[in-house]
Known about the structure:
Number of strands: 8
Shape: globular
Distance between the termini: 27 Å
Number of helices: 2
Radius of gyration: 14 Å
Order of helices and strands: EHEHEEEEEE
Structural class: alpha+beta
Amino acid sequence: MAYTVDFKTVSTVGLESSPVAPALAGLRANEARYFKNKYDHDFTVEPASSAEATIDWVNRILEEERNIVISSPPLEATAFQVEHIGMAYVFYESGLSINVMYTIDDATKRAVGFKLSEGMEVPEELSGFKFARQKSKLAGTIRGSYFVIKNEY
């Protein structure tokens, strides 16, 4: 069942099996707040079992671009378009969030972003990336990194 993320009252709904569920819920709420404020978009996620096409697309990009296979099971995902930007998010049990920003009309502005919830270690498969820190009222300290997508998907 789809869940519209409430960034005013942070909830761990759908993320309960994560060892860092409150931090991951804060990270998810942080993303929801951003899209509501910038694009007036309600950030709605689905259980991984209902979002296989989105998860497969993200996995394909990770594997083909950087030979990355995420070991943690996905819990939730979403895909949507705001203005001329296709977005996909996958939230993982480990506390990892991966997003794909895929501009429709400008191939130079496409990227994969990684965000680590507070309290989680850097996953082995992402150990080659440098992570910058940012503070969030909803998520505590978020560590993030990204890479630019070179091919068409």
